[in-house]
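Re: the multi-chain job from yesterday

Posting the exact lines I submitted so nobody has to dig through the queue logs.
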Amino acid sequence: MKKFINEAANVETEMLDGLAASHPEYVERLEGLDVIVRSDKKKDKVALVSGGGSGHEPSHAGYVGEGMLDAAVPGAVYTSPTPDQIFEAIKAVDDGKGVLLVIKNYTGDVMNFEMAADMARDEGIDVDQVVTADDVAVEDSLYTVGRRGVAGTVFVHKIAGAKAEEGADLAEVKRVAQKVVDNIRSMGVAILPSTVPAAGTPGFELADDEMEIGIGIHGEPGTSTEKIKPADEIVDELLGRILADKDFKGKKVALMVNGSGATPAMELYILARRALENLAENDVAKTLVGNFMTSIDQAGASLTLLELDDELEQLLNAPADTIALTVK
Amino acid sequence: MKKFINEAANVETEMLDGLAASHPEYVERLEGLDVIVRSDKKKDKVALVSGGGSGHEPSHAGYVGEGMLDAAVPGAVYTSPTPDQIFEAIKAVDDGKGVLLVIKNYTGDVMNFEMAADMARDEGIDVDQVVTADDVAVEDSLYTVGRRGVAGTVFVHKIAGAKAEEGADLAEVKRVAQKVVDNIRSMGVAILPSTVPAAGTPGFELADDEMEIGIGIHGEPGTSTEKIKPADEIVDELLGRILADKDFKGKKVALMVNGSGATPAMELYILARRALENLAENDVAKTLVGNFMTSIDQAGASLTLLELDDELEQLLNAPADTIALTVK
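And the result, C-alpha cells for all chains:
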C-alpha cells in the first residue's frame, strides 16, 4: 500500500481537519465530532443532511454550502456514520423548517440515518428522507437490500439543495429529491481496485488484462470480471445496461461521467466522448465530468443518466457554491 | 498499462472532442485544430492564451472561460504544441486589444510560443508573454534552462485572467501576471509514476517503499528517490524547500495542494492539514485542494505557495467561470 497518510487509524479525522482548515469560507467541523456543516449557516430554510462512509471524497463534505447540503456526516472508511453523529448534524442545522436526509441505499446507512431521524423527532424536529438507489448493476448486494446508491446521489444534493435554498418547505424539497431519485440510473467499472488504509491490501484482485464490471463504491467486486476492452466498448456496455433499465429515448437528460479517484481526466473525457455519441438522439442539457463520488484510489468510472424535466433542469442550473461544485 | 482509452495514438484528439462535447456552455474546439477557445468569446479585452503538452488535465483547457483563459493549446502528451497551432489560437481570440501568452518554462514550449508570437506580430497583433518557473526542485532540467513551470501556473491563469476580464490593457495584464510569476514557488513528490499511452510503460520505476522527491510534471524522475515517509514528514520536506527558497515568513499567501492525477482527495487533504499547520504564522487567504495540473495517472502531489498583496488577493477571489474552476 502506497499512500500519503500518517497512521492508517487517523486518516478520517486528519482528512476532515484538513478539509475544514482548507475551506473555512465554506465549512466548519463541529467541535469534537465528525460532522461538517456550512460556515455561513443560512436561516429559515429546510436543511439537507447527507453522508456515508469516508473514501468517497469529495462526497459528501465537498457539497456542503450554498445551494446544496447543510451538513455532511462521514463515517469511517466505507462504514456508515453512527446514529449519534447524524443526530448531532441534524440538530446543528435545523432551523425550525425541518431536515431532509439524503441516504444512499446501504443497510447500515439506512438504519443509522433512520435511528437518528427518530431521535430528532423525539426532540420535535421535523425530519424526512429520500434513499438513492441508482446503480443498475445489482438488485441486491452484500451490503444492500435493493439497489445501491452511487454517484447519482450528487444530483439529488444539487437539485434538492437548490429547492431548499429557494425557501421551499420540507414536503416540496422531498418531492423534488424523490423525483431525482426516481429518474437517475448509474453503472460503474474499475480497472484497479481500491485499498482501505486500515486493511492495507486491495479489496479484490484483477489481472493486468482484466476489468471489473458492475462495481460498487465500497471496494467490493463487481458483477463480472471481463477482459479489458477499448474505452468505447466499455461505454457501450455500461450505457447499454442503463438504457435497458429505463427508457431515456429522446429525453432531455443530464450525464455524469464520474471518476472513482485514480482515473485521469484524460480518460474520463474519452469515456464522455463516446457516451455523448451514443446519446446523440437525446437533448443532453448538462454534462458533468470529474471525481464526484470516489472509492479512495480505485481506477474506475461510472456513468449516470438523469432524466430532466423543466423543473429539474432549472434547479440543476441554479447557483451553488461549495468546495467541489460551484454554479454561477 | 491499464487505461480507459481506444487507440493510444488517438487519446489527445478523443479527449479534446470529449471535452468540447461535454461543455459547450464553456468551450468549443476550433474546427480541425487542437485548439480550445471560449464559446462566449468576450469582446474588447486582452486575450489570454496558454497551453503545453497534454496529460496535465484539467490544465489548460479546463481553465478556458470567464475570468481565466481565452484559449488553450494542447500538444501531444507531454509535448509542446506547434507554433502554427498556437498562432491559430492567437488569431482566434485576439480582438484588437492584444494577447498575453502564459508559457510554462520548458525549452520547447518557450520556443514554439515565441515563434507563434512572431508570426502573430507579423500580422499586426500585439502579443506579449510571461514564463512561469515556479518549481524549486531544480535550477535546470532535462527539458529546461532555468526552473520548470508547474502547478503555480494556474494562479497566473486565475489572476491575470481576472485582470483582463476587468478590461485592463496588455501592459497591465502582463504586469499582474509577472507579479504572480515572481511570487510563486512549488515542489512536488510522486509515489507512483505516470504512463504515457503511446509508450505503454511508466516513465520511471519505484520500489514499493520508495517515493520520488522533486518530481516534474512530465513523467520524468525527480531529484532524489527516498524511502516513503509519513505524509507529515513529506509535507515538511516539500514546504521546507519552498520556504528556504523565498521568504514567505508572516506573509499573506495562497496555498495550492495539487494532485497529479491518481491521488485521492483523502490524501490531498491529509497533506493540506499539515501544510496549514506549518503555515500557522501566515495569513493563508485561500487554499485550493484538488487536481489542477496533473501528470496523467501519476500518484503524487505538489505544494504551491503564492505571496499575495491586496491586488493579487482581490483578483484571485474575483469571479471566474470555467470547467475546472468557478468562483462566484
